[in-house]
Amino acid sequence: MGRYYLTTAIDYANGEPHAGHAFEKVGADVIARYRRALGDDVYFSIGMDEHGQGIAEEAERRDADPQGFVDELADLWAGVWARLEISNDDFIRTTEGRHRRAVEAIVSGMRASGDLYVDRYAGFYCVRCERFRKEEELVDGRCPYHPSRDITWTEEENWFFRLSRYRDPLIEHIGTHPEFIQPASRRNEILRLLEGGLEDISASRSRLPWGIPFPGTEDHTVYVWIDALTNYLSATGFPDEEYTHWWPARLHIIGKDITRFHCVIWPAMLMSAGLELPETVWAHGFVSVAGGKISKDAGSALGLDELIDRHGTDAFRYFLVREVPWDGDREFASAADLLDRFDLRYNAELANDIGNLVSRSAAMVHKYRGGEATLSGSTALDEARTSLARSYHEAMQAHLLHSGLEAVLGLVRRANAFIDEQQPWQLAKEDGSAEALDDVLGALVACLRGVAAMLGPFMPRKAEEIWCRMGGAAGLPSYSEAAVPAAPSPAAGPEARARVAVLRGPPLFPRYEPGP
Ligand code: ME8
Predict the structure, then answer these.
(1) What is the per-residue pLDDT for 150?
(2) Could you give the number of structural domains in the chain?
(3) Atom of ligand 1 nearest to the CA of 9
C-alpha cells in the first residue's frame, strides 16, 4: 500500500467530449477507485489543455476571446465528468497561475542544463496535432492523422530543445524499466522510433500570443506540448518542495496517438530538468465508429448525454470498460452497431446476470428466512469465489480492466448456476434440510457482497446498492472489509458467521425494451 498519483491526458479545450474521451476517463477512474479500495492514498488528476494555435484559431472562428472560450468549455467538460462520476481529486487547467509557475520552472531547469538554444524552423505544422511534420510524413500533402485539415507551411525563429541528446538515456531507461511503457506493443513502437534516431524539437513558438510567455523572451510562447505535459507536475504543487509528496507519478494514462510525447519528449524534459520520471505510461487504444474517430458527427445518438441517458451512468461506465479492451482498440461498424452492443450487454449482463441474481437471492432470503441470512462460506461457491477474486486482482493490478470485469461476471454466472444446482426451493420443502438451506442462502449473500466490492470501481452506485441490500453498512467496503464477511475461513471468529439483514428493492437494471 502506498501513495498512488495517477493522471489522464488533459483534453484540448476546442470542442465537446466524446465517447473516446469518456473511455479514457472512466478507465482511469476505475483504477483510481480500485487503488482506494485497496487502501492506497490516491491522487487522481485530469484537466484541460487550453493553449496553442488550434484553440486560438477555434476561439477566433467563434468570435470569442480565448480565455472566455476555454472557461466555458472547462465548465462543460467538468460537468460531463461529474455526470460520469469521475472521482478526480484535481482538475488542472493550463491557463491557471499554478501551472504557469511550473512551466517556467521546468523550462528554467532545461535551460540550466544547456538543452535550449535558438534556431530557425521551416516546416509544416499540423494545428490539430500541434506539431511540426516533415514533408515525408505527409500523405497526399496532408497530416496522416488529420487529412481533412489544411497543413500550414511555417517559418519562424524558435527555441529548440536538445531532444537528440536523450536518445541513449531513454533507450537505457526503457530497457531497465520494462514497466515504464505499457502495454508491451507500445514499448516496442517507441524503441523502434528511438532506434531510428531523435531530432531536436521546438520548445517555443514565435508570434503565437496564446500561450505561456517563454521565460526570458519577449515574443515567444512555450510550445504547447511542453506546456501541456508539465501539467502532471503542476498538479503536485511543483516547484514548491511539497511536490515530492505525489511526484513521481505512478501512472500516466493516455491514448496511443500521443505516446511519442509521453514516452520520449516528457521523460527527456524531466531528465533535462533533473527530475524523476513517472513509473508507468499506459497507452490505451481507440474507440472508433466506421473507421473514423468517434464523434458526435457519427450520429447524434452517440453524444455523451444521449449515451448516458440510454441506460444510466453506471451502465455506460460498465459498457465502455467491458466492450473496449483496455489494452486494445474497438471499432464499431456504425453508430447502430455500438448501440446494439450496448443494449445487448445491458439486458444480458446487467439486467439478467447481475440484476436477477440480486433479486432472486434477496427474494429467497425473505421467503425462507424472514429477510435474515447467516453469512456462510462452507459451500461449493467458495472455491469459485476465491479463484475468481484472485483473477480479478491479478487483472486489475496488470491494468487489464476488461479482464477484471470478466472475472466478476464469471462469479456472477457461477452463483446463478449454484442456485439452479442447489434448488433452495426443494431444500425448503424437505425435512432436515434447514441447515443446508441456511448455508446456500448465506453463501449467496456472502458471494454478492464480494461481487459488490469488486464491481465498486466500475459501477460505484449500483455496487453500493448491492452491498447495502446484502446487509452492508452505507458506503462501499474496502477489500479487506469485504474479505471478512465474504470469505470466512473455518478458523474465523464469530463475526465471520454474522447474521445480516437482506433488503429487497426494485430491479437494479430494469430490462430495456426498445420502442417499435
Ligand atoms: O491529445 N478513443 O488531447 P485530445 C480513445 N491535449 N481515446 C481517445 C479517442 C478515441 N476515439 N480520441 C481521443 C490531446 N482520445 C492533448 C493531450 S496531455 C499532456 C495533452 C484520447 O483532446 C487521446 O488519445 O486530442 C488522449 O489521450 C485524450 O483522449 C485527449 O485527447
Answers:
(1) 84
(2) 2
(3) 18
Looking at residue 515, what is its pLDDT? 77
List of the chain residues with pLDDT < 70:
1, 293, 295-301, 377-379, 480-497
- Is 303 part of any domain? no
**Test site for ligand 1: of 26, 251, 254, 289, most ligand atoms within 8 A of the Cβ:** 254
Task: State the Cα–Cα distance between residues 158 and 201, nearest whole angstrom.
Answer: 9
> Ligand 1: which residue has its CA nearest to atom 11?
20
Q: Are strands 41-49 and 372-374 parallel, antiparallel or unpaired?
A: unpaired
- Cα 80 from Cα 82, distance rounded (Å): 5
Same domain, 330 and 225: no
CA distances from 60 to 56, 93, 145, 180 (A): 6, 20, 23, 40
Residue 498: predicted pLDDT:
82
* Same domain, residue pair 130 and 184: yes
Distance 286 CA to ligand 1 centre (A): 9
Identify the residue whose cell numbers are 535558438: 118
Instruction: Specify whether 346 is located in the same domain as 481.
Output: yes
Residues 347, 227 share a domain: no
Provide the pLDDT for residue 152.
85
Are 215 and 180 within one domain? yes
CATH code for the domain of 218: 3.40.50.620
With cell 474465523, the residue in question is 492
Q: What is the CATH number of the domain that holds 416?
A: 1.10.730.10
Same domain, yes or no: 257 and 403: no
Phi-psi region of 475 (alpha: psi -120 to 50; beta: other; left: phi over 0): left
Residue with cell 461506465: 317
Q: Hey, which residues are catalytic here?
A: 18, 21, 126, 129, 143, 146, 293, 296
395 in any annotated domain: yes
φ/ψ bin of 299: left (φ > 0), alpha (ψ from -120 to 50), beta (otherwise): left
Residues with CB under 6 A from ligand 1: 9-12, 20-21, 23-24, 49, 228-229, 231, 254-255, 257-258, 286-288, 293-294
Residue 85 has a pLDDT of 98
Q: Look up the domain containing 129 and give its range.
A: 3-284
Distance of CA 112 from the midpoint of ligand 1 (Å)? 32
Quick check: 249 and 232 in contact, CB under 8 A?
yes
**Shared domain check, 322 and 205:** no
| pLDDT at res. 509 | 98
Domain contains 302: no
- At 491 the pLDDT is 43
Index of the ligand 1 atom closest to the CA of residue 253: 27
In the chain the first and final C-alpha atoms are separated, in Å, by 52
- Look at residue 294 and tell me if it is in a domain: no
Residue ending a domain, choose from 235, 267, 284: 284
- With a threshold of 0.85, does the pTM exceed it? yes
